[in-house]
Amino acid sequence: MDYTKLDCPEFTQEEKSYILSTRIRVGRNLADFPLGPGISKDQRDQVEHYVVTALNKFQGDLKGRYYALGSMSERDRQQLIDDHFLFKEGDRFLQAAGLNR
After folding, report:
1. Are 34 and 43 in contact (CB under 8 A)?
2. 3-state secondary structure of 54
3. What number of H helices and E strands is found in the chain?
4. Stretch (H or E) spanning 38
5. Contact present, 89 and 77 (Cβ < 8 Å)
6. CA angle, 24 as apex, 20 and 28 as ends, to 5°?
7. What's the rounded Cα separation, in Å, for the pair 3 and 20?
8. Does the first or last residue of the chain, that is N or C, have fewer Cβ atoms within 10 Å of its Cβ?
9. What are the two backbone dihedrals, phi and then psi, of residue 85, each rounded to the nearest 5 degrees?
10. Does residue 90 or residue 48 have the better pLDDT?
11. Rounded-to-integer distance, Cα 61 and Cα 38, Å
């Protein structure tokens, strides 16, 4: 998982123009924490704390804004859904996996 070992040519200007945005999806567990369906509220809060602490250390192009689900405005929530960064409530796949809480 060392990006410096990747052999990737630079994008051309045309290729760069196709990239509008990117995102990082945390879809696996952290050490000592169960996967989403089996995690408790306290454990989710701990995971969020660890992730926010790490995200706050990002600089330059990686620096961004973290949106906590429990405290974001309705306007921000809808914008993140419209931009495909946040699932809509009631997603049947998340519900089936026990992750829609």
Report:
1. yes
2. helix
3. 4, 0
4. none
5. no
6. 155
7. 21
8. N
9. -100, -10
10. 48
11. 34
Task: Report the chain's terminal Cα–Cα distance, integer Å.
Answer: 31
Return the amino acid letter for 18. Y
The string of DSSP codes covering 66-96 is ---TTT--HHHHHHHHHTTSSPPTT-HHHHH
Burial of 33 (0-12, 13-18, 19+ CB in 10 A): middle
More confident residue, 30 or 63: 63
Q: Please give the angle made by the CA atoms of 87, 74 and 30, to the nearest 5 degrees.
A: 45
Please determine, for residue 43, whether its predicted confidence score (pLDDT) is greater than 80: yes
